[in-house]
Structures are given as C-alpha cells and as structure tokens.
Write the structure tokens for this entry.
Amino acid sequence: MTSQSELDFERINRIYDNSTFAYLGVVISVFFLGSISYHFASAELTFYWVILVFLSNIPRLLTSQRFSKKIKNHEINLKNVKPWEKYFFISSILPFVSFCSVVFMPFKENVLVCVLFCTMINICMVCGTLLTYCTTRSIMWLHLSLFILTPVVRLLWLGGTVPVLLACYLLIAYFMIMRLAKSQNEIFVENISMKIDSKNQSLLDPLTGLSNRRRLYLFVEKLIPASYRNGDSFSLILLDIDYFKEFNDKYGHISGDELLVSLSAILIDCSREQDLVVRYGGEEFMLVLPSTNLEQAILLTDRIQLIVRDKLKITISAGLAEYRDETSFDQLIKVADNALYKAKEGGRDRYQVA
C-alpha cells in the first residue's frame, strides 16, 4: 500500500519536472500575445507587460532550480517534500496574474477580436495545465481560474450582446473543464500510486516484506555519497539464524517460514526509520545503519540478540563492519561476512566485529 508521503514525493517531483515545458509554453505565448498588444494597443505598455511577466517568473524559476539542486543532493526526502508544493503554488500566483493581465490592455481597434485572440491563447495554456500540473489540484485550480475567468471579466466589461454571450459560454466551459481537471487529477494520482506499489513490490522480499538485494543496492547508491558528503560513517550488521536447517528438519518448513517472519518483525522494531533491513538470503539478514559507528551497532546487536532469545527461543550470530572511504560496498559485505563466519566458528550466539 502506497503511503501518503511516497505519493506526495512523486506528485511534487512531477510538478517541478514538468515546469520546464510550462516555461516553454509561457515564452511562446508571450511572443504571440506581445505581438497582438504591440500592434493593437501600445508598444510602451507591451514592453512593461513583457518585463512584468519576466520578473514575476524569476522567483518561480529560482524555486525550481533550488528544488532540483536539493533533489540531486538527496536533501529532499519523504519527510520534507510537502512544503515544496506550497512554495511552487505561492511563487506561481504573480506569474499567472501578470500573464493574464494582457487581456485588459487598452486595445485601440478590433477590441473584441483581440480579446478573443487572448482567450484562444489562454485556452491553449489551459490544455497545457491539464497535462503539466495534473498531479496537484491547487495549482490547477489557480491556473484554470485565472486563464479562463480573466477573459470572462474582460468580455463582460466590453458589454454588448456578443461579448456577454461569449462570456456566458466561457463560464459554462470553465465549470466543465474544472470537472474534467478533477477527474484528470484523480486518474493521474491513482496511476502514480499504482506505479509506486508496483515498484515497491519489486523491491521487497515476498515472504517477510523486508527489502531485497535490489532495494539494498539502490539504497546504498544514495547512502555512500551522502555519507561522504556529510562526513558520516555507516555500519553493517550481517546476521544469521543458528541451526536453522535443524529447526526446519524438526518443525517443518512452514514453521521455518513463520520463524523468518517473526525475526523480521523484531528487526524492524529494533531499527530506526532511516535504517534498511534486508533479507539477504535464506536465513541471512542484513541491517544497514546510516550515521552509525561500530559502538552503536554493537549496542543494537546486543539488543536484537537478547530479544530473539527471549521471544523466539533461538539464537543468532552476527558479523559487524563499518564503512570506510577506501572500501567498496561489496568489500564491506565481504568483511562483514568473514566476521559472521568467525562468530559461527566461535560457538554461535555471538557477534564478531571486523
């Protein structure tokens, strides 16, 4: 089941990813609207309008660049991603308002034609909105409301039968498009949720629900650069159930599977949210502990062994290793595995520090 934080992370990522195409659409639209304003309103006002649109988009561009940089450096995660949706919404208000203000230019002649041309461009922008910002209702609502309702206000301001009828038609279209946008948002969010679920299933062990090796290497791919950048060490615990084959032979494979599931639950309970618990293979498990030195890893191992003896009436052996800059992760696993082997050779129900 997809968590809300996972869903928000994917949704908000898409907002910023798609904003590049939105900026391209704005540039093209400004060119066409500026041409109309230049020829039928005022060259001076057109210049000021273009400058206003450009300046108002700077905060949004800076917000997008800052988000991209933080994502690249792994500084944005499931816990702190939510406010970035609000940042984007706030930084979008002035650009949208300034863009839509062109419809109120004092067109000297062919006013109705110019307003209708502006409306046509706005409708094109609305189509882009339904694709670009479909994962967030607040930004869609802001964009659609401004791009459709500003021409409605301008047409009503013009007065006359034709402009008023056109304004009424646009109002009907507005409500229909808002209903479509709501459905579009629900479909896209559901698709994102299904995609996350599918991805998560491919990264989990089907029996225990723990992470598998694929997820392990994806996790470490981000962990090692972050540890290097922050000057943090991380530790590895490789543990194995003692005499698991004998347990299976005595109680059967179903009981063996139940034991693996029970041990997995203990490992999850003992670990922190930032830790990764992996079923490494068979009765072998791995804990990857960010920002953790060997002394802290030893305390955790002692705690796990104590709880396992008490609750499951079995023993486990463990090998511990700490990451160092000159070591690859595969080498770190080999070091921990050698330590586990020594713990087994030393009588089991113990740990060995590499």
User: Anything to note?
Assistant: The beta strands are 235-241, 276-281, 284-289, 316-322, 351-353. Residues 4-202 form one domain.
